[in-house]
Amino acid sequence: MDTTTESVKPPRDTWGSKLAFVLAAAGSAIGLGNIWGFPTVAGQNGGAAFLVVYLMAVVFIGAPVMLAELIIGRRTQRNPVGAFRALSRPGSRWVWVGGLGVLTGVIILSFYSVIAGWTLAYIFKTAIGTFEHGADTAAIFGDVAGNPWTAIGWHLAFMILTVGVVIGGVRDGIERWTKVLMPALFVLLALLVFRAVTLSGAPAGLHFYLNPDFSKINVRVVLAAIGQAFFSLSLGMGAMITYGSYVSKKDDLVSDALFVTGFDTLIAFMAGLIIFPTLFHAGLEPGTGGPGMVFVVLTSLLGSIPPAPYGGIIFGTGFFLLLAIAALTSSVSLLEVAAAWLIDERNVSRHKAAIWLGALSFVIGIPSALANGAVGWLSRLPGLGTDFLTFLFTVFGQYSLVIGSLFISLFIGWVWGTRNADVEVRANNGKFPLGRTWNFLIRFVAPVAIVAILASLLLP
Q1: Per-residue pLDDT at 2 exceeds 60
Q2: 236, 402 in Cβ contact below 8 A?
Q3: Is 164 a residue whose pLDDT tops 70?
Q4: What CATH fold (topology level) applies to the domain 5-458?
Q5: What integer best gives the mean pLDDT of the chain?
Q6: How far apart are CA 269 and CA 35, in angstroms?
């Protein structure tokens, strides 16, 4: 009788329902980049004109690559490394693409947890009215991000939350929590949108965001829109391959990809309905963005949000709770990519895999936690002129994701082949709406667009 480890290995986890997968995958895609990243890039690139190009990029480039990752995952029922190993020739270097995805997930989680930790701190600070009386918001942010023990402590707290969800597994951990967190995120977002669009000055912000001036569209705007589509959908690091590996053969992958893409895009759009009215309410430039916009600029506005004295407290607490939820659903997927690799390829238990990788990401993230004033050279790396956290984001949050997306589209379009992909998509009902269109987009349009993004990142 065969008594090998493989023969006694427990059955692979699967999602309990289509809704569970859509919520979890959308949670993976929806993160801090949607809530402040999208409005920042939109504000810097023409507002409504950028929005139009962004929506086109999501439909014609982002969604096809999303479907490609889901196809690879469900076909192989493996993590990114195992998936590329299963679909390529023995000894093929394509397995390195999966390895890049695992490495990227661990590194991004290391600094993502630092920023997410700040959102936890700010939930409490806004709830107790810290920003209601003309507080020095820059100094407060410096105390949170620049104090080594505070920054590391919140980084640790957020990592513990992430590990705790992943330890529970697909159904009892990720699925159970996303069924709670994603509806909560949407309700909070809707309430904040209602409050923002009723602020004085909101009409000007909505005009900037919703009435396109197509004369503002140029090559730079198009490339920025394509790049933001990839970044906001969490493509290129194997998260969708991993989540797709838990999808039932009975599910319709095309509708799965469309639902996830649509939900992610809706959240990004709604974030703009919060940020732009709020910025115009304060008379600020629409291109204001990043951590400074969220933790310094927006908090300085809380005291002016009616009704006094609790309007700003409620708005601010809700906003940072929203950020924390979005960050947690994304961080869970980052950890799950690497955890699935240890579980599938090294037969490590889920409990150990989650703890070991969470601890590793926490340690790697300590320099990022110290890069906002606590340690001088980490705040400005010699020869680079940027801080350590921004350096990691540039290398792994931009270049690595773009390179990963390029190789995934090339692999499924030209190596493994769209014919095999067609077979996998048709596994549930024999149908593949717009299959020929998808074949063309994944083989030609997506690779060209991704190369253009990479060139724009590399060239000054």
Answers
A1: no
A2: yes
A3: yes
A4: Amino acid/polyamine transporter I (1.20.1740)
A5: 90
A6: 9
The 10s digit of each residue's pLDDT in 43-68 is 989 899 999 999 999 999 999 999 99
Instruction: Please count the other Cβ atoms lying within 10 Å of the Cβ belonging to residue 287.
Output: 16
Residue of 235, 220, 298, 115 lying closest to 455 (CA atoms): 220
Q: Which residue in this structure is represented by tokens 């059955």? A: 11
For residue 174 the two structure tokens come to 């990720």
Which pLDDT score, from 0 to 100, does residue 359 have?
Answer: 98
3-state secondary structure 365-419: HHHHHCCCCCCHHHHCCCCCCCCHHHHHHHHHHHHHHHHHHHHHHHHHHHHCCHH
Phi and psi of 286, rounded to 5°?
A: -70, -15
C-alpha distances in angstroms, 194 versus 39, 277, 312? 17, 11, 14
Contact residues for 31 (Cβ-Cβ < 8 A; gap 6+): 112, 234, 326, 327, 329, 330, 331
What does DSSP assign to residue 94? T
Reading the block at residue 282, the tokens are 């304060």
What's the CA gap between 238 and 102, in Å, rounded? 7
Q: What is the pLDDT of residues 345-403, one digit of tens each?
A: 999 999 999 999 999 999 999 999 999 877 778 988 988 888 999 899 989 988 999 99
pLDDT the model gives residue 425: 94
pTM: 0.92
Q: How far apart are CA 408 and CA 186, in angstroms?
A: 31
Radius of gyration of the chain (CA): 22
C-alpha span between 210 and 137 (Å, rounded): 30
